[in-house]
Amino acid sequence: MIEPLVLIPSMMCDARVFYAQLASLSADIPITFAPITGGERM
After folding, report:
1. Which tens digit of pLDDT belongs to each residue from 15-26?
2. 38 — phi, psi (to 5°)?
3. CA–CA separation, 36 and 10 (whole Å)
4. 30, pLDDT greater than 90
């Protein structure tokens, strides 16, 4: 089983900053975006 790659955007960014990585890697490995909003801490 292949471990997913978790991408964590920084402040004032969202998943769009990882478009190039998503386009290149998603055919080979599962990719998850970890939202940083909505919680007190990560």
Report:
1. 778 888 888 998
2. 90, 0
3. 8
4. yes
pLDDT of residue 13: 74
Given a contact cutoff of 8 angstroms between Cβ atoms, the answer to whether 11 and 42 are in contact is no
Report which secondary-structure segment, H or E, holds 24: helix 19-25
The shares of helix, strand and coil residues in the chain, as percent rounded to the nearest 5, are 25, 15, 60
Indicate the domain borders of the chain: 1-42
With 70 as the cut, is the pLDDT of residue 42 above it?
Answer: no
* Residue 23 phi, psi dihedral angles, 5° rounding: -65, -40
